[in-house]
Amino acid sequence: MQQPVEIDVEEDEQVVARVAGIDVAKASGTVCTRVPAESGTGRRVTKVWQVKADTRSLLELADHLVCQGVERVVLESTSDYWRAFFYILTARGLTVWLVNAAQVKNVPGRPKTDKLDAVWLAKLAEKSMVSPSFVPAEPMRHVRDLARARFDLVADRTRVKQRVEKLLEDALIKISSVLSDIHGVSGRAILDALIAGQRNPTVLAELAKGRARARRAALEDALHGRFTEHHARLARMLLEQIDELHAHIAQVTDLLDEAIAALPVITASAQDGTVIDASADAVASAVQRLSAIPGAGPDSVRAVIGEIGLDMSVFGTHQRLCSWAKTSPQTKQSGRKNGRARTGKGNPYLKAALGQMATGAAKTDTFLGARYRRLIKRMPKPKALAAIERSILVIIFHMLADPTVEFAELGADHYTQRLDRARRTNQLTRQLQALGYTVTLTTAA
């Protein structure tokens, strides 16, 4: 028989005496409180009632829970309907936990009603069987809202650009096959001329700028089509929409930089144990420091900071941050079978920014690029990119946890320098001998 092994369980198994669980809906919420009976017999009293989701009703609920001495309130994350409950109850001084709906599902086979769900939430809160989700403070929420607004505006601009290309295909204009970006300087000049009424392919091709002028012959062939006044009207509206979105993106970017710089001072601990106060200058330089990571840029760094914040003490370790961001696959083990599950969906805004960074880093001649090229030899490319995303997130965690840390590139030859030459030589020699060759090794000059 295998000897039992003691494991370290981090969950807090404390029983909370006075708890409340709230099943949230759009216009109302079902509240359940569990408190000790006044008789002192160890009995617990459970009360369930329904409240409206308006501000006045929630303020009354907050006062009632405070009078009851409730120590913990658990909310199920349901769309965005939890925000009113969370903000008002937290402002009243209550300890509110927002929990993942996937972690608080009721036992299968039991009836499901709002009342039973609220009771189940209260019981889970009482036994400390749930963990709270990450809800940043209000200044950090402002940064996150701006970062997400910028992400959505960029996505909208991309969709409009795709509509322009589709319109050109309908007009038999194939400049997207010649120019890498039809909305660059050359492409925009040609589009403006087409909208203004110019239809001569030779004249249009002469509008090319820079390196595109070397392809004027191909451009002239691509500009033969049937661009009509109908296409011109639609193209004019789409280009105006792109310009408007571009202005909004620039405005939101400026607001995002101001919001990041206005974040409160963070107290961090350096690697040598000394305490560091992250001043406003250090907070403002976070984007610049993280932009040194291969594949990263100011835009993607702002998106990451908007989702995880600057205070890494919230997560504690980089393993917890990676688990929260769903960049680490869960391990599934049953009997003798060991398998890995999917990483999960995670935060779509954070995953998009990390994916953009990983794609850029994979093309560089750096440590991350070399790591990606080693991984794709034994796994699919999407899986290798997910591994690079996790590596980038670990780097970001350590750089934000210590404001004095600067990014240090290990180099593309990092793995080669750590290679055991004798062991690798023996491996290759045995492989050649197995193929029937006689191997004689001579040291190169």
Describe the structure in your own words:
By secondary structure, the protein is an alpha/beta fold. The protein folds into three domains: about 20-125, Ribonuclease H-like superfamily/Ribonuclease H (Nucleotidyltransferase, domain 5), CATH 3.30.420.10; about 140-260, Helix Hairpins, CATH 1.10.287; about 265-400, no CATH class. About 50% of the residues lie in helices and about 10% in strands. It contains 17 helices and nine strands. The strands form three sheets. Strands 3-2-1-4-5 form a five-stranded mixed beta sheet. Strands 6-7 form a two-stranded antiparallel ribbon. Strands 8-9 form a two-stranded antiparallel sheet. Strand 6 (about 265-270) and strand 7 form a beta hairpin. The longest helix has about 35 residues, at about 140-170. The protein is extended. Residues about 270-280 have low confidence and may be disordered.
Q: In terms of structural class, how would the helical and strand content be classed?
A: alpha/beta
Strand content: 5-15%
Shape: extended
* Lateral arrangement of strands in the main beta sheet: 3-2-1-4-5
Largest sheet: 5 strands, mixed
Ends distance: 59 Å
Give the SSE order as H and E letters. Answer: EEEHEHEHHHHHHEEHHHHEEHHHHH
Helix content: 40-55%
Layout of helices and strands:
Blueprint (H helix, E strand, L loop, with lengths): L18 E6 L3 E9 L7 E9 L2 H13 L4 E5 L5 H10 L4 E4 L14 H13 L11 H33 L14 H12 L4 H5 L10 H7 L6 H33 L4 E4 L5 E4 L1 H5 L1 H5 L7 H11 L9 H7 L6 E4 L2 E4 L7 H15 L4 H9 L5 H21 L12 H4 L3 H14 L11
Parallel strand pairs: 1-4, 4-5
Antiparallel strand pairs: 1-2, 2-3, 6-7, 8-9
